[in-house]
Write a structure and sequence with these properties.
Protein name: Addiction module component
Low-confidence stretches: none
Shape: elongated
Strand content: under 5%
Number of strands: 0
Oligomer: single chain
Number of helices: 3
Order of helices and strands: HHH
Amino acid sequence: MAQVSKLDQVLESIEMLPLEDQEVLVELMQRRLVERRREEIAKHIAQAQADYEAGKVFRGTVEDAIAELRA
């Protein structure tokens, strides 16, 4: 018999909860996911700022970018 995945086990456990608890769980998970996304965006912003300050960011017009790519 195939081993039941952890996700399947979790889903089975959740399905045993009362409907109201399942709804609360969904809300909590959505909030946590939003917070994780915010943290990830903040990390990307910090990295972009560091790259900008280090001069690693290309600055110029579209024409400048095309010329840079052709060089």
